[in-house]
Amino acid sequence: MGDISQIMVDLGSMDPSVRGPAEQTVNGARESDLGGFLVALVKEMRDGSKPEASRQMAGVVLKNSVAFDAREEGRRNELEAKWRALHADTRTYVKQEMMQSLDSTPLVARIVSLVIANLARIEIPAGEWQDLIPQLCNAVGTANPQWMETALTALGYVCEECDGNEGLTQALAAQSMPILDAIFKGLYHESPTVRYNAVNALCNAIDFIGHHMENEEQRTSLINGICDAAAAAEVATRQKALETLVALAKLYYEQLGAHVQQLWNVTTHAIANDKEECALQGLLFWLAIAEIEVELEDVETNQSYTKAILGDLFKILADCLQKQEEGQTEEDWNVSTAASKTLVAVAEAAGDAIMDVAMPFVHANIGASAWRQREAAVLAFGCILHGPDPGLMRQVVAEAITTI
């Protein structure tokens, strides 16, 4: 294949006359001898004496050559078949070298994490690479922050691959305890990047931790860990922690009863005081709760969380409705539009009870001099239309229509 370092550098060139020949060389090498091609890429990526640009590009080409997450199913199946057809020694070599690359430079390490996840998607359900998860968990337990960061990143990507992959989900569920132990080591680490990657891994692992959520002690530890992360100094970590709470609400609604006050405190603090990206996740948490309770109407498992806190929840949503952006449309996504969507679901979950908390706000603000208050009143009225009994709502609409 020639000077692989130069070829990798040329692949990143903006000049088509330089990049084109490099692409032809790479495609030819990939098609003629995939195994040898992958080995050459791994060696280039692992060689610390090579230019950083060359190492990064070698990692990108390697990832794209085994990327089982390709969007087109046919292409993904083709790549999987080519990987399976490689000699076992070649596959083992690539996997071992990926694990030895956890302490690479940050950009290379991220690519390594993606390659590991792509390979795990096909290998683990087939009974291969059974030591991957133990190795990643052990790496998290080291004193090297770079190893921890990359291992947690890889764990997060591997967990993300569970979507639509029942075999991988079952395999990871069987190893969920060491995975969670590794994640919790990262949650309380001094490095902000390690903490973020731990929260991200936990968010991606939510689907297969059901049996831990059934255990009161473990459930409490999990929720405490997520809530602690929601108070982190870094916005990205807080946002990811709140996103994890949203996923928790959707999957484990029935297990949240003893923790509702804690979850209320964390989510409403985010809504009222945090950056918009965090506030949105706080609103989505209560949207998820309300939508579940609409589905569970008249079902014994309905815990009626929204009814229990209806007055306070409406006040939070009403404040958000008054944060409209000038010229916003229904397609915009911000605190105001998220609150209106949440209020629609809350009204449906609360039924007639929404009238007692919403209508005083509507009456008090419909004639306000400030346009945001007026629009919030109209919007609140529109959001609750489908919540109460139709007969009651028709009467209220008839009384209010001349005003609005």
From TrEMBL:
Alphabetic keyword roster: Cytoplasm, Nucleus, Protein transport, Repeat, Transport
One example GO MF annotation: small GTPase binding
InterPro entries to which the protein is assigned, alphabetical: ARM-like (IPR011989), ARM-type_fold (IPR016024), Importin-beta_N (IPR001494), Importin_beta (IPR040122), TPR_IPO4/5 (IPR057672)
Any GO BP: protein import into nucleus
SMART domains: IBN_N
Subcellular location: Cytoplasm; Nucleus
The keyword Transmembrane belongs to this UniProt entry's keyword annotation: no
Chief location bin: cytoplasm
Span of domain Importin N-terminal: 22-104
Alphabetized PROSITE patterns for the sequence: IMPORTIN_B_NT
SUPFAM superfamilies: ARM repeat
Gene Ontology CC terms: cytoplasm
UniProt cross-references to PANTHER family, sorted A to Z: IMPORTIN BETA
UniProt name for this protein: Importin N-terminal domain-containing protein
Source organism of the structure: Neobodo designis
